[in-house]
What does this fold into?
Amino acid sequence: MTAEGDDHPARNEFRGFTLVELLTVLGLVTLLVSLLLPVAGKVRAAANATACLSNLRQMGAAWTLYTAESRGRLMHYAWYSPDSQTMAWDLYWPGVLDARQVRGSTLLCPAASEPSDNESIGGYGNATRAWTGRFASAGTVVRFDETTYRDSSYGYNRYLTAGGGFVPDLNASTLSTARSMSDLPVFLDCAAPDVWPLNGSEKSPPELPPNLSGNQITLYTPDHWKFLLARHGRGANVFMADGSARWTRLEDMYSLSWRSDWVRYRLNLPAR
It folds into this structure.
């Protein structure tokens, strides 16, 4: 039915978007995405850092339990035992943690959970990759046999081993020689299973890495390059001997007390 005097039937009119309107909508969507992506990245990075600290606390709790059971005695350094594969596998820190059910994903930081695929550098990791025992010799702490090996994003302060140099005469065998437990690193974000960093001094520091990505790490680079990694912003997560765990700026990693006579100072590191 039509209204009186109306020459055309009633109808619904549909008007499509003009090109200008479509481009405006697309521009707004692009702007929103560009604003949200950095926020999502920061949220993800914060979640990774929190999970990493949780991992380190679990690792540290197992180490603390071992130390208490051993009446403060430091663990032995045992890397290779070809005549008895279980010795190195069980004796050093990964074995100590494994015996206390700390293994697998707990040893992997979410920001560096994929193991290295670089055989030429022995499977060392970097800022975004975990180290792997896949390319190591069988009978070591990181590789038991042809099919069983360990991956991790963390390393151990090798000074904290019996005779490992925690005190200058190398004879320290118990944790009782430690002075500043709250600044004594035990486990930390690392591209290798353990580190034994050179100290130097503020006026004569050891050779600094060319960058903080870890892409220059080789079989022969200094140990401190292996933890001066921008894995969590410009810092690393560290578990301390007093049971605490915290994020530490890379410039302040040498301000920690790695051994009893460590000379503390800040590092002047590359911009990235």
